[in-house]
Amino acid sequence: MAQLWTRRQVLAQMGMAAAAVHTLDPHELCCTVAAHAQTASKDLFELKKVADGVYGAIAATRYKVNCNAAVIMTDDGVIVVDSHSKPSASRAMYQQIQGIAKKPVIKVINTHFHWDHWQGNESYAASNPKLEIIASERTKENLTKPDAGVGGVPYIEKQIAALPGEMDKLKADIQKETDTTKKGNLESNLQQAESFLQELKSMKPTLPTRTVGTTLTLKEGGREIQLHVLGRGHTNGDLYTFLPKEKVIATGDALIDWMPFMNDGYPGEWPDTLVALGKLGFEHIIPGHGEPCTKAYLKEQGQIVENWVGYIERFVDRGLTPEEILKQPLEVTKQDPYPIGQRLFMHDERLTGLIVHNLHKRILDKKQAAGAGAA
Ligand SMILES: [Zn+2]
Ligand SMILES: [Zn+2]
């Protein structure tokens, strides 16, 4: 059963003083959108049927990004994969689910520990005291580790610390902006940032109640649902939800319809993990972000990650620093079927910088470790 504690109670349990948590650069945030983008005109989610009683809930663009959810109807209740960046988003999701079937949400599966995939757990726990929350063992660990990356209980404090600065920047941008539409969008984003801050402050971090080591098969009211841990990729604990009869998989951010966020990832191992994923008999993919897609995209996602690693590796071999790499023209060639940089989400230079710095460090560390091993 999920327990509802305040975030300060959870931090106290972890032996952490909130004040001791360092602030973050807002651009560390996974999956940011351009600040002036229109982000509040549509419903929060669009439910797209991918099989009988199985839906991809595709998140609309918001200033603070929400992940997609997979919604699986069973005779006994509803199973939801991932819970977005805040309780108000998962409440909106719950309302949309109730529009299809008036059944309780009995299980929530968290694909990984990132902030935009689990911070809405509490509203499902509030709607059903018997709710089970399932994640991989690594994800459960990451959710309470001080420096696991862009998610987990300590990261709530980091977001709270970073938001006032982010809001000041939005206010300054509003003052400077002369285009009426962009100004309106910035004002909407400022309102969203303010309400997000309030939600973070009252958040009751709701952690997994059950973990998966490698695989777990659930028989749920007429459906078989397999949960798989297949190796490191987007994080060290990515959990895949596979429906063998319906041939559907929910991947979390190991596969997304945008440029993959690699900062907490394992780019050297990620493509192999996607190859292992491909051995499962699915046809339809509900990705962590973006539109539902087919199995054909799996290869492309692996290639995108491989291209990035290869691109940076060549510069590391030549001894270039991340700053020097960033001065090179991004390698977008006609021969390459998956041009580097072309899918970069919102073409955000700061995100490119983060990926380059991160990959440079990882590749260099690996080379040094290999060198030390050979010596
Ligand atoms: Zn995400
Ligand atoms: Zn993620």
What does this structure look like?
It contains eleven helices and 13 strands. It has 375 residues and is of the alpha/beta class. The strands form two sheets. The chain has a seven-stranded mixed beta sheet. The protein is globular, with a radius of gyration of 20 Å.
Offer a few descriptive terms.
11 helices, seven-stranded mixed beta sheet, 39% helix, single chain, binds zinc ion, six-stranded mixed beta sheet, alpha/beta, 375 residues, 13 strands
Overall form: globular
Strand order of the largest sheet: 1-2-3-4-5-6-7
Distance between the termini: 52 Å
Classify the beta-strand content into a percent band. Answer: 15-25%
The helix/strand class is alpha/beta
Question: What is the count of DSSP helices, taking H or I runs of 4+ residues?
Answer: 11
Order of helices and strands: HEEEEHEHHEHHHEEEEEHEEHHH
- Unreliable stretches (pLDDT < 50, length at least 5) are 16-29, 332-347
Give the helix level as a range of percent.
25-40%
* Main sheet characteristics: 7 strands, mixed
Bound heterogens, unique:
zinc ion
Query: What Rg is obtained from the alpha carbons, in whole angstroms?
Result: 20 Å
Beta-strand segment tally: 13
What is the average of the pLDDT values? 86
